[in-house]
Amino acid sequence: MKVTIHNATLELVEGDITQQDTDAIVNAANRSLLGGGGVDGAIHRAGGPKILEECRQLGGCETGDAKITTGGNLKARYVIHAVGPVYRGSPRDAELLASCHRRSLEVASENHCRSVAFPAISTGAYGYPLHEAAPIALRTVMDYLRSHDDITLVRFVLFGRAAYEAFAQALRDLTT
Ligand code: ADP
Predict the structure, then answer these.
(1) pTM for this prediction
(2) Which atom of ligand 1 is nearest to the CA of 157?
(3) Residue ranges of the domains in the chain?
(4) pLDDT digits (tens, 9 = 90+) for 62-77
């Protein structure tokens, strides 16, 4: 599914984020930035040890923030390591989830990226329900694209049918 937002394309695909050829891919990292399971493990496996080496120099990352490394052996030139919230069922969850998406795009802009791929941050080990996370992630990206001209493609790469369908439903709700 694909929509146009201002001068950009916002796209949803089902797939594996490590295979994306966008300028940057976003990692759903933890605050240590020293690796983990899920999409984080997959990115470090596919990108090689160089990424973890760079991460060690970054001194961790606060929840709601994002930091950048090169892409190692990945097709993407950069990995943007974003830290989403552990889901607690509090209003703060949504703020922090929005913030890590916004910060990822700001860091992408600072590094002259024109295309960025996101996973469904916080919806795995961190327990954020897909149907709650999807509209927050999408709305935050749409707001950013409406107010910035430099990024012309944002692709959400959803792992499995359920994640794709949750994002597709949320995008339909936001655009109709
Ligand atoms: P978090 O700790 O932020 O919840 P996880 O990595 O556990 O991070 O999960 C975040 C999302 O990433 C989940 O929806 C999970 O299914 C998805 N995911 C796992 N592996 C990949 C991958 N290779 N590409 C894209 N998404 C992935």
Answers:
(1) 0.98
(2) 25
(3) 2-175
(4) 999 999 999 999 999 9
